[in-house]
Amino acid sequence: MTKPRARDLGIPFEGSTGKYNAITDVDGITVGYSTIIEGVSARTGVTIIHPRGKSNHDPVFAAWFPFNGNGEMTGAAWVEEGGLLEGPIGITNTHSVGVVRDTIIEWQVKNNALFQRWSLPVVAETADGWLNDMNGFFIKPAHVWEALENAVSGPIVEGSVGGGTGMLCYEFKGGNGTSSRKLPEK
Questions:
Q1: Is the Cβ–Cβ distance between 132 and 41 less than 8 Å?
Q2: Cα gap 41→44, rounded to integer Å
Q3: Which residues contact 1 (CB under 8 A, 6 or more apart)?
Q4: Helix 141-149 to helix 97-110 angle, to the nearest 10 degrees?
Q5: What are the sequence ranges of the domains in the chain?
Q6: By CB atoms within 10 Å of each CB, which of 18, 48, 108, 136 scores lowest?
Q7: What's the number of CA atoms in the CB half-sphere (13 Å) around residue 97?
Q8: Tell me, which fold does domain 17-173 have in CATH?
Q9: Burial of 162: CB neighbours in 10 Å, binned 0-12, 13-18, 19+
């Protein structure tokens, strides 16, 4: 069942959206997920964003801003210093940042996708500890590979999927969300 989006409910926003009103409206971007819901303890997952798709490994310009310093994002120092993002972006729970980072590097090596001889992937954490047992270490390399390999363009799934599976936001159920805006032609 597809849930309505904010615009579908009459909530006004400025600007015109792209075709899918999603990050994938930008040419080349693909998004993949692996979602784990098992028993009463596991509500977690991995979201992967390929900025230029799985087969184009050219870097993209990037920057970052620490809106909330109580969180982890690997690779941020290199983005700040070099101004480039050189591979997929991962989003997962706090205690799985390391396995996602390491698996992205393994994927880059096995797919000859390193821009340089080394890699510092950007992996951001979500604190999904209210709905998920973060100490259960449910995220395994196979889950990261699934998200990396199954990334798609076009319309993408939103809500309780991937890295957003176990999220709560101000006491409301959270998840993965996306949108896009068209810039003026000028």
A1: yes
A2: 9
A3: none
A4: 50
A5: 17-173
A6: 18
A7: 16
A8: L-amino peptidase D-ALA esterase/amidase (3.60.70)
A9: buried
Q: Which two tokens stand for residue 58?
A: 């050219």
CA distance 7 to 15: 12
What span, in angstroms and rounded, lies between the C-alpha atoms of 126 and 63?
Answer: 19
Answer yes or no: are the C-beta atoms of 132 and 175 closer than 8 Å.
Answer: no
pLDDT, tens only, 26-48: 999 999 999 999 999 999 999 99
| Helix residue ranges, H only, 22-152 | 76-82, 97-110, 141-149
| Secondary structure letter of residue 164 according to DSSP | G
Exposed, middle or buried: residue 84 (CB in 10 Å: 0-12, 13-18, 19+)? middle
Helices and strands per DSSP (H, E), number in the chain: 3, 9
Contacts of 70 (CB under 8 A, 6+ apart): none
Give the tokens for residue 127: 């604190």
pLDDT in tens, 120-154: 999 999 999 999 999 999 999 999 999 999 999 99
Instruction: Name the pLDDT band for 1 (thresholds 50, 70, 90).
Output: low
CA distance 80 to 129: 29
- Residues paired with 43 in a beta bridge: 37
CB 93 within 8 A of CB 134: yes
